[in-house]
Design brief:
By secondary structure, the chain is α/β, with parallel strands linked by helices. It has a five-stranded mixed barrel with strand order 5-8-7-6-9, surrounded by four helices. It binds 1-O-phosphono-alpha-D-ribofuranose (R1P) and guanine.
Length: about 300
């Protein structure tokens, strides 16, 4: 096991050359050149098990990688194939509330890019703000509200390396519309129409869940779901030119009413992840398979 020094732990960002060294280290140990990168949300780590011909790296062994500290995030990078297509899957992501810098939690997106990934598929567990949503619904993200970003905590803050992307990237096209359409088509074909939604995800810093007033505010501002991840990854993935698809599994209903006896908790989040694991796997697999059949998608 690689032990990180205190200085390494305190690092805020990594240079292009350091990211390249990590990507090259990984590529040296696998013949797979992934075009698709998948990130598993809380309790959705089982998605990585759908890959065949797997080569697995523990985060602790990967140069420059942070460690997963959250229950439900195993901390493994899994290379493998999905219906013949080479993929790389993060079985566990990093969150701001774990104490890492925002640049560090998004480092894997730059590694994805340098591995050759063209399409990123992000998943997360989220609280449902939209009153029509039920626990177990799958919401395809069409947009986001980036609260840490609005407050100045954006992963692109700091010197910009043009080899990754431009200083001022556009975010009005962050979520690829063709991929949203593909998810809708595939979802209908799989008979998921009753629980497949499309909406706006809002990200907060966490780790405390929201107050009732905060949930009401988010809903008034147009958010359909709330979580503590994904958006930072989306910003970095788009900055370096990868196509992005993201979905939220609605694991709990955000508490909006002072009379409610409901209380958000991480155990419920993980449980709902298990209940929808099979459908999530089928949706992602079918989408990746369709990417394979249509070169326009990658
Ligand atoms: O967004 P993911 O990683 O799925 O995790 C979600 O679930 C955790 C809360 O239960 C938070 O980390 C929230 O962001
Ligand atoms: N912030 C936040 N994150 C979540 N992740 C899963 N459920 C929730 C929630 O209700 N709020």
């Amino acid at each position: 096991m690689r032990r990180l020094s205190a200085a390494e732990r305190a690092r805020i960002r990594y240079t292009y050359e350091e990211c390249k060294a990590t990507a090259d280290w990984l590529l040296k140990q696998t013949d797979l050149c992934p075009l698709v990168g998948i990130v598993c949300g809380s309790g959705m780590g089982g998605l990585a098990d759908m890959l065949k011909d797997r080569v697995v790296f523990n985060y602790k062994d990967i140069p420059n990688f942070p460690q997963s500290t959250v229950h439900g995030h195993a901390g493994r990078l899994v290379f493998g194939t999905l219906k013949g297509r080479a993929c790389v899957c993060m079985q566990g992501r990093f969150h701001l509330y774990e104490g890492y810098s925002i640049q560090k939690i998004t480092l894997p997106m730059r590694i994805f890019k340098l591995l050759g990934v063209q399409t990123v598929m992000l998943t997360n567990a989220a609280g449902g703000l939209n009153q029509d949503y039920k626990v177990g619904d799958i919401m395809v993200l069409k947009d986001h509200l980036n609260f840490p970003g609005l407050a100045g905590n954006n992963p692109l803050v700091g010197p910009n390396d043009e080899r990754f992307g431009v200083r001022f990237p556009c975010m009005s096209d962050a979520y690829d519309r063709e991929l949203q359409q593909l998810a809708a088509e595939v979802g209908q074909e799989l008979g998921f129409g009753d629980f497949l939604r499309e909406g706006v995800y809002s990200v907060l810093g966490g780790p405390s869940f929201e107050t009732i007033a905060e949930c009401r505010m988010l809903s008034i501002l147009g958010a359909d779901a709330v979580g503590m991840s994904t958006v930072h990854e989306v910003v970095v993935a788009r900055h370096c030119g990868m196509r992005v698809f993201a979905l939220s599994l609605i694991t709990n209903r955000a508490v909006m009413d002072y009379d409610s006896a409901e209380r958000a908790n991480h155990e419920e989040v993980l449980e709902t992840g298990k209940l929808r694991a099979e459908q999530l796997e089928r949706l992602i697999t079918a989408m990746v398979t369709r990417l394979e059949h249509n070169n326009n998608y990658v």
